[in-house]
Amino acid sequence: MLNLTRATLRPDLAILTMAGYLDARPRVGYFYTGKTGSQLLTEKIKKIKVHEFQSLPVVIQESASVYDAITTMFLEDVGTLFVVDKNSKLAGVVSRKDLLRASIGQKDLNKLPVNVIMTRMPNIAVCYRDDYLIDVARRLIERQIDAMPVVKKSDDDSGYEVIGRVTKTNMTRALVEIASDEII
Questions:
Q1: End-to-end CA distance of the chain
Q2: pTM across the whole model
Q3: 173 in the Ramachandran plot: left (φ > 0), alpha (ψ -120 to 50) or beta?
C-alpha cells in the first residue's frame, strides 16, 4: 500500500519491534502490540535488578566506637553504615539519626561501642542482588529509610554477608539513566 520495498521497511520495523510497539512472528509478520509508551516504560522499569545500580557498602565492626562511626560516615560521605560482627556477618545498621542521638548525650563517644546504638538484626530490611529495584524502592519508602544492604546468605547459613548497598541516590541515578534512555 505504501509502494515501498521490504528492504526499505525492515530497519524501521526492527526499531519498532525493539522498542516494543510491534511484535514479529514467523509466518504472521509484524503486528501492533497495543502498548503505549508509558506501558513500555513501566515494563522496562519493572525488569531492572538491584545489581545493575547497587553501590559499594560501607561497613564497620560492631566493636568500633561511635566516634569512629561518625568519622567513617563523614570520610565516606554516606548516611548509613552497615555494622558487621567479627565473622563479617551483618549485625546491624547505624544511621545519621542514631549517631546524632548518641552524640547529644553526655557520653564519651570514644568509649561507647557502636553496637549499643545500632539497629539490630532481625529489624533490618535487606535485599538481594537479583531483587527488582522497584520492589526495593517501595520498601525504602515504606520503612522510611535511606539505604538498604544488599546481602547474600553465608555458606554456613549463619547470617548475611554484605555485598552492596542500595540508596535513594541509586534510585535517582536509575531514574536519570532511564530518562536519558541509557539502559535497555
A1: 33
A2: 0.75
A3: alpha
Grid coordinates representing 115 are 553496637
Residues 90 and 148 in one domain: yes
98 shares a domain with 69: yes
Q: Quick: pLDDT tens for 38-94.
A: 776 777 788 889 999 999 999 999 999 999 999 999 999 999 999 999 989 999 999
The secondary element (H helix, E strand) that includes residue 175 is helix 168-179
Three-class SS state of 90: strand
Q: What is the dihedral of CA 82, 86, 90, 91, to 10 degrees?
A: -80
Q: Which domain holds residue 93?
A: 51-175
Distance from CA of residue 16 to its chain's centroid? 30
